[in-house]
Write a structure and sequence with these properties.
There is one protein chain. By secondary structure, the protein is α+β, with helices and mostly antiparallel strands. The chain is 34% helix and 21% strand. The protein has 4 domains: 8-206, Heat Shock Protein 90 (2-Layer Sandwich), CATH 3.30.565.10; 215-341, Ribosomal Protein S5, domain 2 (2-Layer Sandwich); 375-480 and 583-627, MutL, C-terminal domain, dimerisation subdomain (formyl-coa transferase, domain 3, 2-Layer Sandwich), CATH 3.30.1540.20; 490-578, 2-Layer Sandwich (Ribosomal Protein S8, Chain: A, domain 1), CATH 3.30.1370.100. α2 (23-36) runs parallel beside α6 (171-188) and α13 crosses α18 (590-602).
Length: 631
């Protein structure tokens, strides 16, 4: 068949299929245009999930009359500037959009109308495009958000391409996709007010924040990610070379079942990139269960020339010039911030506990006379069934005054190396009193219940600690510290094992030989497509070398780092910590309980165990008073 040029209408519809795949994509392009125009207020109105009507109204700079026809032409844009030689710089892009494809693509498959009043102009003008057919510019009445701006209306999306309508989901699903797009853009721009309406009902209403960098950004994120996000997140703000990472990340005990609540913004542009998957996974790898994912909103700012935003027509993917630098910054900043959070645990844990509390009235036949109740209590006290702390701390191993137990006995004295420095409180040689509650974040131990949970009194409430989960985390952190300081012990194979791999996988592993050696796995190339394994980590015992190397190769290909071996080592350490920790059902003395609390306060990540569960619940006195009707 002879080669022929496609008609312009067909070209536009093919391009529309790449850029405008569903109503949410059209909303994204139009809202980005409004933001690039300097809008401070954007109103989005949707009907029938976006298939009936998409209306975007802003108070931006507007479009002059003579530029309206250019706005709906392919590859016509105001966002790229040509140099003296006529060349356009595609590396230094500072706007949300720049391709000049959105409006003509939408006009090719829908009924598009644009009404705009440029800043400083006395008149408003409109233009219409219907299924690719352009109508002339004509004057229009202006009734909008401000004295200038633009209103874009898209009606009957995909009416010119009925086949595309067959692939649309339900109106509810399409509206959820639209809402997700608007929320991501709103998170990126807290200085802009957003209104989203669907079939006349407001789905999202956000006012502009005065401080878009700090508390304003936190408030905007909380409005979108949920009110619980603000008190359960930690601030991030670190810089490495020319790259700055800011934003907020949730505490490990504030997690979700999917990665949909992890957001990455590059130079103000919301993107979806596999980089964040590996980086966040690495930072939280021993703090969460495998099926749980943290909540995070990360903002990367770097020179425009160091990131390529022209990878995908929808501009949802980017490519970094130095991906290793960016990934290292994300992992380092998250790890540092999480370590700085210390023993903090999510407030939602306490809220769930309070929500489960119900007033209970025992049936009348089971009520005992007071004298009988007192006699029973005295009998149980004499038998030692109620465990109360002794209240003295000078014999506590944490302060070096008492005999220590070995790790095999699960003793509190084995929590950290003896060189760990802890400042003794002013009342170290006295009984714990109410005054100590102010000095200690986790309070002073008052009782042990069911030989599993420690109850401590704080300045403004109580703390309930799961003794096994808490001690498990402390022992695990100690083991990690030992591995970091002394390295991973290796075991040499009597007969080195040869593993056959794909040549590209073998080459990727060979380039990481030094890194793997630090983790106890000694390998070397053995011809094309083969790796020779000489030594393996002693902690892992006998391992399937071939399976391990294939997992490592997959990790390197997908995430750029060998996670599988680190996770195997951490799983072994976690299992050893679990078996060597204070078990549930073991009775502790008052000294041991208080020592455990003090060590939790001094150990990073002690707010959650190795499996991602909280180690303690804090109940405020005001909440307890509400339960009993005192407030």
């Amino acid at each position: 068949m002879p080669i022929r040029r496609l008609p312009p209408e067909a070209v536009n519809r093919i391009a529309a299929g790449e850029v405008i795949e569903r109503p949410a994509a059209a909303v994204k392009e139009l809202v980005e245009n409004a933001l690039d125009a300097g809008a401070k207020r954007v109103a989005i109105r949707i009907e029938r999930g976006g298939l009936g009507l998409i209306s975007i109204e802003d108070d931006g700079g507007g479009i002059p009359r003579d530029e309206l026809p250019l706005a709906v032409e392919r590859h016509a844009t105001s966002k790229l500037v040509a140099g003296d030689g006529g060349d356009v710089d595609l590396l230094n892009i500072y706007t949300m959009g720049f391709r000049g494809e959105a409006l003509p693509s939408i006009g090719a498959v829908a009924r598009l109308s644009i009404v705009s009043k440029a800043r400083g102009s006395n008149d408003a003008w409109s233009i219409e495009v219907e299924g690719g057919a352009l109508h002339p510019v004509k004057p229009s009445a202006w009734a909008a958000l401000s004295e200038h701006g633009t209103r874009v209306e898209v009606r009957d999306l995909f009416f010119a391409t009925p086949a595309r309508l067959k692939f649309m989901k339900s109106e509810r699903a399409e509206m959820m996709a639209v809402s997700d797009v608007v929320k991501r853009l709103a998170m990126a721009r807290p200085d802009v007010a957003f209104l989203l309406e669907h079939d006349g009902r407001a789905n999202l209403r956000l006012s502009a924040e005065a401080d878009p960098e700090n508390e304003g950004r936190r408030a905007r994120l909380a409005a979108i990610l949920g009110a619980d996000f603000a008190p359960n997140c930690i601030l991030l703000d670190q810089r490495r070379d020319t790259v700055r990472l800011s934003g907020f990340a949730g505490l490990p005990t504030f997690h979700r079942g999917t990665r949909e609540h992890q957001h990455l913004f590059v130079n103000g542009r919301p993107v979806k990139d596999k980089l964040i998957v590996g980086a966040v996974r690495a930072a939280y790898q021993d703090l969460l269960a495998r099926d749980r994912h943290p909540v995070a909103a990360l903002f990367l700012d770097l020179p425009a020339g160091d990131v390529d935003v022209n990878v995908h027509p929808a501009k949802t993917e980017v490519r970094f010039r130095d991906a290793a630098l960016v990934r290292g910054l994300i992992v380092g900043a998250l790890s540092h911030a999480l370590a700085g959070a210390g023993h903090r645990a999510s407030t939602t844990t306490a809220q769930s506990a309070l929500g489960a509390v119900r007033a209970y009235e025992a049936p009348q036949p089971f009520l005992r006379p007071a004298a009988q109740a007192w006699a029973l209590a005295e009998e149980r006290l004499a038998a030692g069934d109620f465990m109360m702390p002794s209240g003295r701390v000078e014999s506590s191993p944490v302060y070096g005054g008492g005999a220590e137990r070995s790790e095999t006995e699960g003793g509190i004295g084995a929590l950290l190396p003896q060189s760990a420095s802890l400042t003794a409180p002013p009342h170290a040689g006295e009984h714990y009193s109410a005054a100590d509650a102010e000095y200690f974040p986790l309070g002073a131990a008052r009782a042990q219940i069911h030989e599993t949970y420690i109850v401590a009194q704080t300045e403004d409430g109580i703390v309930i600690v799961d003794q096994h989960a808490a001690h498990e985390r402390l022992v695990y952190e100690r083991m990690k510290q030992m591995l970091a300081n002394g390295g991973v012990r290796r075991q040499a194979l009597l007969i080195p094992e040869v593993v056959e791999l794909d040549p590209s996988e073998a080459e990727a592993l060979a380039t990481r030989a030094e890194e793997l050696g630090q983790l106890g796995l000694v390998i070397e190339p053995f011809g094309p497509g083969a790796i020779l394994v000489r030594e393996t980590p002693a902690l892992l015992g006998h391992i399937d070398a071939a399976g391990m190397l294939k997992d490592l190769a997959d990790d390197i290909a997908e995430l750029g780092e060998a996670h599988a071996l680190k996770e195997r080592l951490e799983e072994v350490c976690s299992s050893m910590a679990c078996r060597g920790s204070v078990r549930a059902g073991r009775r502790l003395t008052g000294d041991e309980m208080n020592a455990l609390l003090r060590q939790m306060e001094a150990t990073p990540f002690s707010g959650q165990c190795n499996h991602g569960r909280p180690t303690y619940v804090e109940l405020k006195l005001s909440d307890i008073e509400k339960l009993f009707g005192r407030r």
